[in-house]
Design goal:
Ferric Hydroxamate Uptake Protein, Chain A, domain 1; mainly beta; 5-stranded mixed sheet; Maltoporin, Chain A; Immunoglobulin-like
Length: 859
C-alpha cells in the first residue's frame, strides 16, 4: 500500500529511460562498463514518452570492479565537451552507490560527460547521450580501486572521524553506522530532532521528553539514556558534553540543523573514544568546508508559529578554505497554558571554520583549522507533567504552576586542529579545545513542600497541591521555584599518531593517542517563593544565590590508547587498549556563603582503569563480512562519590554479519553486556532529588539483537526513478541479577529478574521514498513497544509505563529549475497521542501533528 501511495504523490509523467550511456572510457584506462541500449547492455529498460528538454535527468549507480559493491562518496560532475571548463551540476553517491543529476543545459542529441572521482579509486569518465523520446538516462559505472598510498586527506578523515571513509565501514570489526546527508534529508523536519535521526540506527534506545529533542536522552545497547550520560558524545572527534567527566549529563546538545552527518560505533572498536565505553560512542559531523564556493539559504515556517532560517557560505582555494553558518529556529510550542503564554523555544547557532593548507607539491602535507561555535538557547520548558487522567483527556495541557519555568543557555566552543603528514606512512593530529556552557533552568520544584512527582503519582492524596498546580489560589511561598544555575567548562588537548607498515605478511595500521582533559561543573542555586492568585503566579520571596546548592565539581584526566588494525588476506584483527586515570574533586561551601569566602569542605576520589578490547572480521566474499568482538565497558563515577560507590563496569560481547550487494545492504548483530555494576544518578531529569548522588545497582544482564536493511528498490524494479528504502529493528532485554534496596527513584526495591526501566523490548524505524531527481517524497516511521518507568517484573502497569506507538511522518522536496527547492513535511501524520515518559514528574505526551514548509536556494 505504501509504495503506490508514494508513487502517486510524485508526478512522473514525461520521464523515460535512455539506452545511451554508451560504454564510457576512463580518464586513464579502459571502458567504465556503463549500461547501453545499443551496446553490450542491450537489455536496458524501454524509453518512455518525451518531456521538456529542461527535464533531462541522469540516474545512476557506481560499483567497484572488485566484487561489484556500491561505492559511496563518489563525486559525479557533468562536463560539457569532455573538458574541465564550464562545469555543470554535481552530486555525490549515497551509501548504496546511487546518484541523481538534473538541471544541466539542453543535451538532447549531444553527449554529456560524467566525471567521477573518489579517494582510493581511479578517476573515471563516462559518456551519456540522450536520444529523441528519452528524458531519463540510467547508467551503471564500474570504478577501479587505485593501488596508491593513502592520500593525506583520506588519512585525516580516518584520524578525525570514528568510521572515517564510509566505504571502509563494512570491514570494521564491530557495529558501525554512518548517517549521511541523504539520511538527514529523509528525516528532515522543522526541528531536526536528533532522536528521530538516531532511531535509524539499531541498538540506540531513546527516551523522549519534550517532543523536540532539545536535551536528548540517548542510550546504546541498554546503557542508561538519562541525558545521554552513559554515551561518549563528540562533535568532529572532540568531547562535546558540557563536562564529560565531572557531570556527564548532556543538558547541551549541538543543533542538528548545522550537521552533515552522524557516526555511531558500538562494540570493541569504540574503546579508543572513551571515557565511557559501556554502550558506544556518537560523533556528530559539523558542516565541512566546501571544495569550491557554495552557499545555501533556507527559510521556512510551520505550525505553532514555527520559523526557521539558515545561511551557509563557504569556499576553498589552494591554501585557504572557510565556512560561515548561521541558524535560527523558533516556535511558540505545542503545549497550552490557560494564560496563552509561549511554551516553545528559540535557538540561535553560529559556526565558523577557517583552514590553512600546505601547497599541493609540498613534501609533507599540513593542515591547520580553527573552528568557532556559538549557541544561545531559551525555551519555556518544564519538568512538570500531567496526571494519568489529564494526559488522556487533554494531553497538551500545561498546568498553571509551570508558567514561570524557563531555561536559558549559552554555549561557546573553540577548537584548533593541526594535521601533519610526518612521512608517507606516518601522520600526527594535534587538537586543542575549550568549551564553556552556562545554563539556568528556572523551574517549579515543590508545591506546599511536596515533590511534584509524588503529587502527580497520587492526586487523590494530594488533591490540594494538585489544585494549586492547576491554578487554585494559595498562600505565599506555596510554590517554590529553583534556579538551577550552573556553569560548565571543558578544555583539553588530544594527540593522535598513526602509522602504516607491512610486517609478518600482514598490513598494520597502528594508532596511538593521548588526551589531557579537565572539566568542571559550578553550581550556585537558589529558590524563590510564589503564590497562586487567580491562575497567575506572583513572586513572594527571593532566594539567596547558593542557598540551595553551592559547590564545584572538578575532574582532571589523562587518557591513553593504542590500537593496531592487522589485515592479512580475508582476516582483520584489531586489538586495542585504553587507560584512564581520573582525579575528581568536589568542593562544598556553606549554603549561606554565596561569595565563597568561608571555609569549604573538599572531597577527592581517584579512578584508574585499563579498558581492553578486541575485534575480528572475516571477509567471506567482497560483499559479505562476518565480525565479532569483546571489550570492557567502563563508566567513571563523579566528584564526591563515597567509598561505597563503585565504577560502572561490564564485559560486552557481539557477533554479526554485514552484506552489501549492488542495491541491497543488510546488517545483523547480536550483543550481550554483562554488568558487574550499574550506576544510577539522582538527577532532576530522572525525577529524583537533583543532588547528583550515585547509587550502585549491582549486576545486570543486557541481551539484544540489532538488524538493519536498506535497498534501492528502483534499481531492483527497473523503474526510471529511485525508491530508497530502509528498515531497522532492535530487540533488547535488560534484567537485574541481584536483590537490593535503592534510594534511586526509578529502581526502588529490586529483585533478581526485574527488568530495567526505560528500555523498550522492541524498537523499529524505517523510511520509504520516491526520487526522480527533481521531486522526492519520503514516508518515515518510528515505533517502540511500551516500556517500564520503574524496575519490575510481570505485566506492565499502564500508569508506570510509556505507551507503545508507531508514528508516521511525511516530507518532500520539489526542485524549481533555476530558482531553488520547495521543502515541506508533516510529522505525526495520523496525529497520534501517546505517553513518551513519566519522569521527571508526571506523564508527558509526544509531539502532535506538525507541518512545515519552506524554500531552499543552493548555489
Amino acid at each position: 500500500m505504501l509504495l503506490p501511495l508514494l508513487i502517486a504523490l510524485l508526478p512522473l509523467a514525461g520521464s523515460g529511460l535512455s539506452g545511451s550511456a554508451a560504454s564510457g572510457s576512463t580518464a586513464n584506462g579502459p571502458a567504465a562498463n556503463a549500461s547501453t541500449a545499443n551496446g553490450p547492455a542491450a537489455n536496458a529498460p524501454e524509453a518512455h514518452a518525451p518531456g521538456a528538454p529542461s527535464d533531462l535527468r541522469i540516474l545512476g549507480v557506481v560499483l567497484s570492479t572488485e566484487g561489484g559493491v556500491p561505492v559511496s562518496g563518489v563525486q559525479v560532475e557533468v562536463r560539457r565537451g569532455g573538458d574541465e571548463d564550464g562545469r555543470s551540476p554535481r552530486t555525490t553517491t549515497d551509501d548504496r552507490g546511487s546518484f541523481s543529476l538534473s538541471g544541466f543545459p539542453d543535451a538532447m542529441g549531444s553527449p554529456v560527460f560524467l566525471h567521477l572521482t573518489r579517494l582510493g579509486f581511479a578517476p573515471t569518465s563516462v559518456e551519456v547521450r540522450f536520444v529523441e523520446g528519452v528524458t531519463v538516462a540510467r547508467v551503471e559505472v564500474r570504478m577501479e580501486p587505485a593501488a596508491l598510498r593513502l592520500s593525506a586527506v583520506s588519512v585525516l578523515i580516518e584520524r578525525t572521524r570514528m568510521v572515517g571513509d564510509p566505504m571502509q565501514a563494512t570491514g570494521i570489526p564491530g557495529s558501525a553506522f554512518v548517517l549521511g546527508p541523504e539520511d538527514l534529508a529523509a528525516s528532515r523536519t522543522a526541528f531536526d530532532n536528533v532522536h528521530d535521526l538516531l532511531r535509524k540506527v539499531p541498538g540506540v534506545n531513546i527516551q523522549d521528553e519534550e517532543g523536540y529533542g532539545l536535551r536528548p536522552n540517548i542510550g546504546l545497547r541498554g546503557a542508561g539514556a538519562e541525558r545521554s550520560g552513559n554515551v561518549t558524545l563528540m562533535e568532529d572527534g572532540v568531547l562535546i558534553a558540557p563536562a564529560p567527566y565531572a557531570a556527564p549529563a548532556a543538558y547541551y546538545f549541538p543543533s542538528m540543523g548545522r550537521m552533515e552527518g552522524v557516526e555511531v560505533r558500538k562494540g570493541a572498536s569504540q574503546v579508543r573514544y572513551g571515557p565511557r565505553t559501556l554502550g558506544g560512542a556518537v560523533n556528530l559531523l559539523a558542516a565541512s568546508i566546501p571544495e569550491e564556493r557554495q552557499w545555501r539559504l533556507e527559510m521556512g515556517a510551520g505550525g505553532d508559529a514555527t520559523r526557521r532560517g539558515q545561511l551557509r557560505v563557504g569556499d576553498s582555494g589552494e591554501h585557504l578554505g572557510w565556512l560561515v553558518q548561521g541558524l535560527e529556529l523558533r516556535t511558540d510550542g505545542f503545549k497550552e497554558l490557560e494564560s496563552g503564554e509561549n511554551t516553545g523555544f528559540l535557538t540561535r547557532d553560529f559556526l565558523g571554520r577557517v583552514r590553512l593548507t600546505s601547497s599541493r607539491d609540498a613534501g609533507r602535507h599540513q593542515q591547520l583549522e580553527l573552528k568557532v561555535g556559538l549557541n544561545d538557547h531559551t525555551s519555556n520548558e518544564t519538568y512538570l507533567g500531567l496526571t494519568e487522567a489529564d494526559v488522556r483527556a487533554t494531553p497538551y495541557l500545561r498546568y498553571a504552576g509551570s508558567q514561570e519555568d524557563v531555561i536559558d543557555t549559552e554555549h561557546r566552543q573553540l577548537k584548533l586542529r593541526h594535521f601533519l603528514e610526518t612521512s608517507p606512512s606516518t601522520d600526527l593530529v594535534v587538537t586543542a579545545y575549550r568549551h564553556t556552557f552556562a545554563r539556568n533552568w528556572y523551574k517549579l520544584q515543590t508545591v506546599n513542600g511536596r515533590g511534584l512527582g509524588a503529587v502527580l503519582a497520587d492526586p487523590a492524596t494530594y488533591a490540594g497541591e494538585l489544585g494549586v498546580l492547576r491554578g487554585a489560589d494559595s498562600p505565599d511561598n506555596a510554590l517554590r521555584l529553583r534556579a538551577n544555575n550552573r556553569v560548565y567548562t571543558s578544555r583539553g588537548i588530544q594527540v593522535v599518531g598513526g602509522g602504516r607498515f607491512l610486517a609478518g605478511g600482514a598490513q598494520h595500521n597502528v594508532e596511538v593517542g593521548l588526551r589531557l582533559h579537565a572539566d568542571d561543573e559550578d553550581r550556585l542555586q537558589w529558590e524563590d517563593g510564589y503564590r497562586m492568585n487567580a491562575g497567575r503566579m506572583i513572586r513572594t520571596s527571593t532566594g539567596v544565590p547558593g542557598s540551595q546548592d553551592n559547590r564545584l565539581g572538578e575532574a582532571g584526566a589523562l587518557a591513553l590508547f593504542a590500537q593496531n588494525e592487522i589485515r592479512a588476506g580475508r582476516w582483520a584483527f584489531v586489538p586495542g587498549v585504553r587507560w584512564e586515570s581520573i582525579e575528581f574533586t568536589r568542593t562544598d561551601w556553606a549554603r549561606e556563603d554565596g561569595d565563597r569566602r568561608g571555609e569549604a569542605t573538599v572531597r577527592r576520589n581517584d579512578v584508574t582503569a585499563l579498558i581492553p578490547g578486541m575485534g575480528l572480521t572475516w571477509e567471506w566474499n567482497p560483499r559479505t563480512h562476518l565480525f565479532g568482538g569483546i571489550h570492557r565497558g567502563f563508566g567513571p563515577p563523579g566528584p564526591g562519590a563515597d567509598e561505597a560507590t563503585r565504577v560502572e563496569s561490564s564485559l560486552n560481547w557481539e557477533a554479526g554479519i554485514r552484506v552489501r550487494q549492488a542495491a541491497v545492504g543488510a546488517n545483523v548483530t547480536a550483543f550481550y553486556s554483562d554488568y558487574t555494576n550499574i550506576l544510577g544518578r539522582a538527577t532532576l531529569a530522572t525525577g529524583d532529588s537533583g543532588t547528583g548522588d550515585l547509587f550502585n545497582g549491582g549486576e545486570v544482564r543486557v541481551l539484544g539483537l540489532e538488524s538493519a536493511v536498506d535497498a534501492e528498490l528502483g534499481r531492483l524494479l527497473g523503474v526510471p526513478f529511485r525508491i530508497p528504502a530502509r528498515l531497522s529493528w532492535t530487540w533488547s532485554r535488560g534484567t537485574f541479577a541481584s536483590d537490593f534496596e535503592s534510594g534511586f527513584g526509578p529502581w526502588g526495591t529490586v529483585q533478581s529478574g526485574d527488568r530495567l526501566p526505560y528500555l523498550a523490548e522492541h524498537m523499529v524505524s524505517g523510511n520509504l521514498g520516491v526520487d526522480d531527481g527533481i521531486r522526492q517524497v519520503t514516508l518515515s516511521w518510528n515505533g517502540a513497544s511500551a516500556m517500564r518507568t520503574e524496575a519490575g517484573a510481570g505485566p506492565l502497569d499502564p500508569e508506570r509505563a510509556t505507551d507503545r506507538y508507531v508514528v508516521l511522518s511525511l516530507n518532500g522536496e520539489w526542485e524549481i529549475r533555476g530558482q531553488g527547492t520547495l521543502i515541506g513535511g508533516i510529522q505525526n501524520l495520523t496525529d497520534r497521542t501517546w505517553v513518551v515518559s513519566r519522569r521527571p514528574a508526571g506523564a508527558r505526551p509526544g509531539l502532535p501533528r506538525t507541518f512545515f514548509v519552506g524554500f531552499r536556494v543552493d548555489r
